[in-house]
TrEMBL record:
<feature type="domain" description="Enoyl reductase (ER)">
    <location>
        <begin position="19"/>
        <end position="357"/>
    </location>
</feature>
<keyword id="KW-0479">Metal-binding</keyword>
<dbReference type="InterPro" id="IPR013154">
    <property type="entry name" value="ADH-like_N"/>
</dbReference>
<dbReference type="GO" id="GO:0008270">
    <property type="term" value="F:zinc ion binding"/>
</dbReference>
<keyword id="KW-0560">Oxidoreductase</keyword>
<keyword id="KW-0520">NAD</keyword>
<dbReference type="InterPro" id="IPR013149">
    <property type="entry name" value="ADH-like_C"/>
</dbReference>
<comment type="similarity">
    <text>Belongs to the zinc-containing alcohol dehydrogenase family.</text>
</comment>
<dbReference type="InterPro" id="IPR036291">
    <property type="entry name" value="NAD(P)-bd_dom_sf"/>
</dbReference>
<dbReference type="Pfam" id="PF08240">
    <property type="entry name" value="ADH_N"/>
</dbReference>
<protein>
    <submittedName>
        <fullName>Alcohol dehydrogenase</fullName>
        <ecNumber>1.1.1.1</ecNumber>
    </submittedName>
</protein>
<dbReference type="InterPro" id="IPR011032">
    <property type="entry name" value="GroES-like_sf"/>
</dbReference>
<dbReference type="InterPro" id="IPR002328">
    <property type="entry name" value="ADH_Zn_CS"/>
</dbReference>
<dbReference type="Pfam" id="PF00107">
    <property type="entry name" value="ADH_zinc_N"/>
</dbReference>
<dbReference type="GO" id="GO:0004022">
    <property type="term" value="F:alcohol dehydrogenase (NAD+) activity"/>
</dbReference>
<dbReference type="InterPro" id="IPR020843">
    <property type="entry name" value="ER"/>
</dbReference>
<keyword id="KW-0862">Zinc</keyword>
Amino acid sequence: MTAEPIPKTQTVALVRQLGGPVEFQHDYPVPTPGPNEVLAKVLYTGVCQSDLHTKSGTAAGADGKPITKIKLPHIGGHEGVGRIIALGPGCSDDLRIGGLVGIRFSSRICRRCEFCLAGVEQYCIKSTNHLHHEDGSFQEYIALDADYLTILPDDVDPKLIGPVLCAGVTAYKAVLNANVKVGQWLVVVGAGGGLGHLAVQYARAHGASVIGVDKGDDKRAFVLSLGAAEFIDFTKTPDVIQEVQRITNGGAHAVVVTAGNAKAFAHAAEMLRVGGTLSCVGIPPGRPFLETPISTIVIRGLKITGNLVGSLKECLEAVELTRRGIVTPNVSVRPFKELPQVYEELEKGDISGRIVLQVAN
């Protein structure tokens, strides 16, 4: 069943070899939806730091080494919003032509392993994703698993929702894992970035008092406009740890590090008070380490948690917060063809909020 004529070919942004340039190919095949698959027309897609690292060949795996098992040519993108235009054989009756769907990092799961059964399917041992294994949202049409579909409400703004599907749910999960209570102090390192500006808002939604750490007067104004109580410019502050301890009278209850920079993580745990939680999000390239002494962690009873996106349930919770206007991604909409320039800006760290590419005309 289809809603509109489907072309045989499409425009995609691909990288032929990791570390190579982005090329726009205009005769790439449009996928045919197989059993229990839908075909979606991609409307908008966010651009994530993980897209840049994967394209550059610097994305790190769980062992700290570069991920090399990546489908080539590589088509990135995992913060997409599309509209269903065709249903493959066997799709259930609750799916309909015209419905909005999300294109997330996770693409397929087994539904049988201990992690799927526990509701943390992002750790599925047989999972695939739209960054390393399957073509992502940097294309005009995409086939998606109908049984693991991110069905979006009809009344969401598709320009805003894309970043929620990766940056949003990851920041949301990081704040959940920080276990902050109303009135407690939470520091967001990288507060003006794509992940960070959302973490500030999720923390505020949980009742925390937020300290944003980033650089520049523009980001100061931006982060404070999101509701942060304080802002620390790390380029102008001689000792950021000491300043956090001064503001919080002994250390923050939680620190969320969203920056993909090794220096941001090195001593972040030392910003914490007794019993505090370091919630790690950004993944710097290479194999950097935390530099906090073990004695500090033990004696002060610190907790460290990692956050790999979130479950589909948590993703839809994050979507709902944006749908209700509680958390609003700061997005700049650009044409699809500007992806190479966006990558350059990401490398320089010049972007506040999130860049969203308009894919469909």
